[in-house]
Amino acid sequence: xxxxxxxxxxxxxxxxxxxxxxxxxxxxxxxxxxxxxxxxxxxxxxxxxxxxxxxxxxxxxxxxxxxxxxxxxxxxxxxxxx
Length: 82
Description:
Layout: E1 9-13, E2 19-24, E3 27-34, E4 37-38, E5 42-46, E6 51-54, E7 60-63
Antiparallel strand pairs: 1-2, 2-3, 3-4, 3-5, 6-7
């Protein structure tokens, strides 16, 4: 049964298995599933997450990128051909 037409990653079930959470780009999405039928996905919030999980009490645990870290330098060998 398709849950999203826009794709998604990192699917996680709620504790009661009635809701599926997933990331679509930077959007946290949720879709209710009852009796084998799915509702339309709903955006809960938008935030760049590296990883997430759902705690038993329903709260989200998330790994966020370090926005304060300087970008990693990129070195190109002048003799190489790209």
